[in-house]
Each structure stands twice: as C-alpha cells, then as structure tokens.
C-alpha cells in the first residue's frame, strides 16, 4: 500500500482515512510506514490506526528537502 500524503487537508475526504485503514486491516497489515517529508498526520489518523490495532512507523521526517521556517510549519513540528 502506498498512499502519498494520506491527509492532504486540501483534498482528503473525511472518510478516506478510515477507508484506507480498513483496507490495511483487511489486507492483514499490522504496521504502516508513514513516509517522512515533514508532515505529521492528524490526531484522527493516529487514533483510528490505534483503534484498528495498526502500528505506525514514522520514517525520516526531515531527510530530503529544504523545509519552510514559517511559524505554522514549526508549530506543527513542535506538536
């Protein structure tokens, strides 16, 4: 399974996250690698994965780009 930017807030329908995690469970996944790139998924994503028994492996969050230094971005990282 590869779903780039699972939660791009600009275009992700509300039920997409749950649907993707249900697909993972149906496929007998017990862990999903969340590719880095400097964007953390929402609490909703984390909660749904936990509820469905799926471990999340965050990988190299800041490995391959020049990241913004805007206040919004830095606050997201800090959280």
Throw out a few tags for this protein.
79 residues, single chain, UDP-galactose 4-epimerase, domain 1, alpha+beta, elongated, two-stranded parallel ribbon
Gyration radius (Cα, Å) is 13 Å
The level-1 CATH class: Alpha Beta
Q: What is the helix content?
A: 25-40%
Unreliable spans are none
Kindly estimate the percentage of residues that lie in beta strands according to DSSP: 5-15%
What best-fitting shape do the alpha-carbon axes yield?
elongated
Number of helices: 3
User: Architecture, according to CATH?
Assistant: Alpha-Beta Complex
Number of domains: 1
| Largest sheet report | 2 strands, parallel
Termini separation comes to 27 Å
Number of extended strands = 2
For the biggest β-sheet, the strand order reads: 1-2
Q: What order do the helices and strands follow?
A: HEHEH
Q: Structural class, from helix and strand content?
A: alpha+beta
Can you walk me through this structure?
35% of the residues lie in helices and 13% in strands. It is α+β, with helices and mostly antiparallel strands and 79 residues long. It has one domain: UDP-galactose 4-epimerase, domain 1. The chain has a two-stranded parallel ribbon with strand order 1-2. β1, α2 and β2 form a beta-alpha-beta unit. The longest helix is centred in the first third of the chain and has 11 residues. The protein starts with 15 loop residues before the first helix and ends with a helix. The model has no long low-confidence stretch (mean pLDDT 79).
